[in-house]
Design a protein that fits this description.
By secondary structure, the chain is an alpha/beta fold. It contains five helices and six strands, in the order H-E-H-E-H-H-E-E-E-H-E. Strand 3 and strand 4 form a beta hairpin. The longest helix is centred in the middle third of the chain and has 17 residues. It is globular, with a radius of gyration of 19 Å. The N and C termini lie far apart (about 35 Å).
């Protein structure tokens, strides 16, 4: 997994000034994420998710991340919530890391991990903090945010696996957006196109 994620981040970093990472908890195997509506058998383990999160956090082009697809009320023994919290902590750990070299991370190809001296030589100066300046719809900006922001997810596709297309109609979608804001959402993320392997492209 580490080489795949490292390659994807490298490709994005060459063509983008900033990278936004979305951690969908339903990528976990159903056994580890009963509170993720879209989780299925055959997903990854919490340890693999933490490795991915830390690697993303260590990339200097990654400036912001969110965590979605979790319903705490459906959890069993706090397993999903714990995995989600550990994911965020791993991401934060990566942000404080001295290097984004993928060979320094758990899950790297066996035998590829360098010695402590080599790690120090590769690391260079420790990175502290990243300037955050994101423009969002409406012209407002997220500058120097010091608290965790809450993002509400609003899927407006007819084949959404998380809500069954409940908000496909415009009026229902608007009403749901208002509810999310009233409930404390700082940002409303609108899912306008399905990511299913076989899907109909949106028209208009």
């Amino acid at each position: 997994m580490v080489p795949v994620i490292a390659a994807a981040l490298d490709q994005l970093a060459r063509s983008a000034d900033a990278i936004y990472v979305d951690f969908d908890i339903d990528v976990l195997d159903r056994a580890f994420a009963p509170a993720a509506p879209g989780s299925r058998p055959g997903g990854i383990t919490p340890a693999e998710l933490r490795t991915a999160a830390r690697l993303c956090g260590a990339n200097p082009k990654v400036l912001i991340a969110d965590l979605v697809e979790i319903d705490p009320e459906r959890d069993v023994a706090g397993g999903t919530v714990s995995a989600a919290c550990m994911c965020l902590l791993a991401f934060a750990s990566g942000c404080c890391c001295e290097s984004s070299d993928p060979s320094l991370f758990c899950g790297a190809t066996p035998g590829a991990r360098p010695s402590a001296r080599e790690r120090r030589e590769r690391s260079g100066p420790r990175r502290h903090g990243r300037g955050l300046r994101w423009s969002v719809v409406g012209g407002s900006q997220l500058n120097g945010v010091r608290r965790t922001l809450v993002m509400g997810i609003l899927n407006v596709t007819p084949d959404s696996f998380s809500d069954g297309g409940s908000y496909f109609e415009p009026q229902k979608a608007l009403a749901r957006a208002r509810t999310l804001i009233d409930d404390g959402a700082d940002i409303v993320d609108i899912g306008g196109e399905s990511s299913r392997p076989v899907r109909a492209r949106p028209r208009g």
